[in-house]
Design a protein that fits this description.
β4 and β5 form a beta hairpin. By secondary structure, the protein is mostly helical. It is about 65% helix and about 5% strand. This is DYW domain-containing protein.
Length: about 950
């Protein structure tokens, strides 16, 4: 429901301006002599009474005392300043300047300085102050107080220095204000000087000065000096002194010290009052001290102080910060009297705890009860509307803030920027940001964070650089926002730039370090990621998980497993996310035994095997060649999501079981789970690897026509591969020509592979030329084209390609295969003899060649050094008869090794499962699942 910001509580009734302009007119009706005397006898309690008092003095000016007018103006200024009515103060100021009855101009000018300061107009206060020919200590204190009220602590100290230079002697009020300014600035050095001055002038015996000194030392993180001063204070038995040091420690977040002092105060026999309990309750706002806060609550229930509004407000804040909103509501509802702090505390609590609907309802309730929203309640509402993402409400709350002149407040503006960012309206946020004349750190952080969160990563980076040019200090929040932008830009140079900035500014916490490790991993800078990871002094679970994931995602699965083992050795137990990262590494390594161990850990730790966990298990078992185990996991999940269906469809497709993928896809649609781009990619891949041409064409048409999904390059690649495998090369080429986007490298590679298998030299030459034109810096492309030219007998072309490769410094990736035997991975490279059982392996390989030569006339000794042959021979040596042999290879299996594997599966009666760079090969009884096309 939209918020009716236009129908809020009516403004407070004030006396109209013309009263000041025409005092003697009929704007104020004359009152009887008795009533006039009654008003003058007692101090005016309201602004209206103050104006009536001034009017009576004007009527009786002949018989009035000399200073009656001064007192009347003074009372009006006091009432105006408490209502923060700047316009009325200016009208009173104008009337004073025109008045003939003012006696003590210094007195009234001081009152004007004080009134302007309380209303937040230091500029107007200074104008009055600068024009004064005579200034008392009260005038100086009023001007210093004006700066303090407006948070201008440095200006207050400068004024104090000028005052001393002119020989004006400070009083207790002066020292109280200046010591507070030193505390707010955390300027201990100057605070000590002021301490010395106060001691010299004999003001330490003043309770207010000594209490201000306590506060200054605590805020400057000098607890020892604060306690030393407290110990020697003559008023230590006074509750005010105790309240001062307890509240100082509480405000500085030193909870343990504050609570210890509270207990000492009770032991000393000093009876706590309202302010004591407010300070102690504030110290208990951290969730770890909630129990003590509840004990205080129970104690207060038995005392009269429970009815005190300030204590009740502190209890509300205590419970809201601990997330106990029911308790906060109970206290709120029991209060007979509520002020703006009460309402704002509850509102802020709802916002902090994500209860935005309740915040909205409380705001409406406040309006109904006639409470006019102030700046703080509007800030809570702005934050609420932002989190709800309702643009209509956002515009309404902004309009209300403008109508009530709250949008000039920097805090309100910053919250409005955040609100528009959360509503995805960065153009509105930018417009508001540009209108802020004096932007602070929060303004810049908010707009940069907004751009980063809404996907405008380059804009966020540009603004970050601009903020640095303007001298905006970086902190963890700002760096976190810009790192978020960097994670999407995927530019390692930018990440290094931000990293350098962090080092320069000394901005390091565990969250930022973890983000940095993750970013370097995403950008493929695994060396940098490892270096930052090693420099983290206290690594948490997130640190280890990110590093495992980085290594797995960058093809360093073996190293990922090693890091995971190191994590376990440090005593950190993995969570489901860490185990998912490890599953990814296991999938790359095809280490079935390790994958089963992780599956067992997931079950023992009670993780629910659904969602990402279950689909990752399906992928892992499939990648390890254990298709039956993949299906067991799939079948055990009662409610399958789209990712789970897609994983199983893809698993069947990888293993050449295209018809099973087709059956599963139709079953998925029948169960009202609708496919997306990835699902169609999985089924098209399955169709291409099983030569299901008609089915593949039907799925491609369905994707475009029925589901209105625009094909990706990967979908086009699958279709070209499908036509190529079925020897429909003309149709494949026609399909490429009719594509809505330019064909990429993968498409031309598919076509070259099909032309080689089906001996289409002309089309293969054309595709080879296109491939090298598109990407001439890839080793893989040059090797593929070179092999095609060699197959066609085009040796001159082969020579040209190899010469270009030498000129560019290209080297073909060495073949590498590995096999898992008894929970250990054994890696073999081409002509490898580094294995400790190398002699036995080559003897076994010779034995195999003898059998194949005798039975099939196979002559393959010249390829004995190929890595997959070494792995297969070792598998035959070390595994029992009948056990499948699972081998993983980093490159495509060569033609000769493919023949070798088929013959071994036939004569040694073993199932051999080889996962190469293209697909899975299931060799059994002399045939392969790929149909000799890979």
């Amino acid at each position: 429901m939209p918020v009716n910001f236009g129908l809020m509580a009516t403004p407070l009734t004030t006396v109209k301006a013309p009263i000041l302009g025409k005092i003697s007119d009929n704007n104020i009706q004359p009152v009887s002599k008795f009533s006039r005397n009654s008003i003058n006898m007692y101090p005016p309690r309201t602004l209206k009474e103050a104006f009536i008092s001034l009017a009576n003095n004007l009527i009786d000016h002949d018989t009035g005392c000399n200073n009656c007018f001064d007192n009347a103006y003074s009372l009006i200024l006091e009432r105006c300043s408490t209502q923060e009515s700047l316009s009325q103060i200016k009208q009173v100021h104008a009337h004073v300047l025109k008045s003939c009855y003012v006696v003590d101009t210094t007195f009234l000018s001081t009152k004007l300085v004080l009134a302007y300061g309380k209303c937040g107009s230091s500029l107007d206060a200074h104008k009055v102050f600068d024009k004064m020919t005579e200034r008392s200590i009260f005038t100086w204190n009023a001007m210093i107080g004006s700066h303090m009220t407006n948070g201008e602590h440095i200006e207050a100290i400068k004024l104090f220095l000028n005052m001393n230079a002119l020989g004006v002697h400070a009083d207790a009020s002066t020292f109280t204000s200046i010591l507070k300014a030193c505390g707010e600035l955390e300027d201990r050095c100057y605070g000590v000087q002021v301490h010395g001055m106060a001691t010299k002038l004999g003001f330490l015996c003043n309770l207010y000065v000594s209490n201000s000194l306590l506060g200054m030392y605590v805020k400057c993180n000098d607890s020892s000096s604060a306690m030393m001063l407290f110990e020697i204070m003559s008023g230590k038995t006074d509750v005010v002194s105790w309240n001062s040091i307890i509240s100082s420690y509480s405000a500085s977040g030193k909870t343990v010290e504050a609570l210890r002092l509270f207990k000492e105060m009770q032991i000393a026999g000093v009876v706590p009052n309202t302010y004591t309990f407010v300070a102690v309750l504030q110290a208990c706002e951290e969730s770890s001290y909630l129990v003590f806060g509840k004990e205080l609550h129970a104690f207060l229930l038995k005392s009269d102080l429970y009815l005190d509004m300030f204590v009740a407000n502190a209890l509300i804040v205590l419970y809201t910060k601990s997330g106990k909103m029911k308790e906060a509501e109970r206290i709120f509802n029991a209060m007979d009297k509520k002020d703006s702090v009460t309402w704002n505390s509850l509102l802020s609590g709802y916002v902090q705890n994500g209860l935005y609907d309740e915040a909205m309802a409380t705001f409406h309730r406040k309006q109904i009860m006639g409470r006019k929203p102030d700046q703080y309640s509007i800030i809570s509402m702005i934050s609420t509307v932002g989190h709800l993402g309702n643009l209509l409400n956002a515009l309404e709350v902004h309009a209300y803030a403008m109508k009530n002149r709250m949008d000039s407040d920097l805090h309100v503006c910053n919250t409005l920027i955040d609100m528009y960012a959360k509503c995805c309206k960065m153009n509105y946020a930018e417009s508001l940001f540009q209108r802020i004349r004096f932007k602070d750190n929060i303004s810049w952080k908010t707009i940069i964070s907004g751009y980063a969160q809404n996907g405008y990563h380059s804009k966020a980076l540009t603004l970050f650089r601009e903020s640095q040019m303007k001298g905006i200090e970086s902190d963890s929040m700002l760096i976190a926002s810009i790192l978020q932008a960097c994670s999407e830009l995927m530019c390692d140079s930018v990440v290094k730039e931000i990293h350098g900035h962090m080092i320069q500014k000394g901005l390091y916490d565990i969250a930022l370090e973890n983000t940095l490790v993750n970013l370097y991993g995403k950008c493929g800078c695994i060396d940098y990621a490892s270096r930052v990871f090693e420099l983290i002094k206290v690594k948490n679970l997130v640190s280890w998980t990110i590093m495992v994931n980085n290594l797995a995602q960058n093809g360093l699965a073996d190293e990922a497993v090693d890091v995971f083992v190191s994590m376990k050795e440090t005593g950190i137990e993995p969570d489901s996310i860490a185990l998912l990262s490890l599953l990814s590494a296991v999938s790359d390594l095809s280490t079935l035994k390790k994958g089963k161990e992780i599956h067992g850990v997931l079950i023992r730790k009670g993780f629910i095997l659904q969602g990402p966990i279950s689909s990752s298990l399906v992928d892992m078992y499939s990648a390890c060649g254990a298709l039956e185990d993949s299906f067991k996991v799939f079948d055990s999940i009662p409610t399958k999501d789209l990712v789970m269906w897609t994983s199983m469809i893809n698993a069947y497709g990888m293993h050449g079981m295209g018809m099973e993928s087709v059956r599963l896809f139709h079953q998925m649609v029948a169960e009202k789970v609708y496919p997306d781009h990835v699902s169609f990619l999985a089924i098209l891949y399955a169709c291409s690897h099983s030569s299901l041409v008609d089915e593949g064409k039907a799925f491609f048409k369905s994707m475009v026509d029925e589901y209105a999904l625009n094909p990706w390059q990967e979908h086009y690649t699958c279709m070209v591969d499908l036509f190529g495998r079925a020897n429909n090369l003309k149709e494949a080429f026609k399909f490429i020509e009719n594509m809505e986007m330019k064909p990429n490298v993968a498409i031309w590679r598919c076509l070259i592979g099909a032309c080689k298998v089906h001996n289409d030299i002309e089309l293969g030459n054309f595709a080879s030329k296109k491939l090298l034109e598109l990407d001439s810096d890839s080793v893989k492309n040059h090797v593929l084209v070179s092999n095609f030219y060699a197959f066609c007998g085009q040796w001159d072309d082969v020579g040209d390609i190899r010469m270009k490769m030498r000129q560019k410094g290209f080297k073909k990736d060495p073949g590498c295969s590995w096999i898992e035997i008894w929970n250990k991975i054994h890696v073999f490279t081409v002509r490898d003899k580094s294995h400790p059982e190398s002699d036995e392996i080559y003897d076994k390989l010779a034995q195999i060649n003898d059998i194949l030569k005798r039975e099939e006339g196979y002559l393959g000794e010249m390829f004995n050094g190929h890595s997959e042959r070494l792995a297969i021979a070792y598998g035959l040596l070390k595994t029992s008869k009948g056990m499948p042999i699972r081998v993983t290879k980093n490159l495509r299996v060569c033609d000769d090794c493919h023949v070798f594997s088929k013959l071994v599966s036939k004569y040694f009666e073993r199932e051999i499962i080889v996962r190469d760079a293209n697909r899975f090969h299931h060799f059994g009884s002399g045939i392969c699942s790929c149909g000799d096309f890979w």
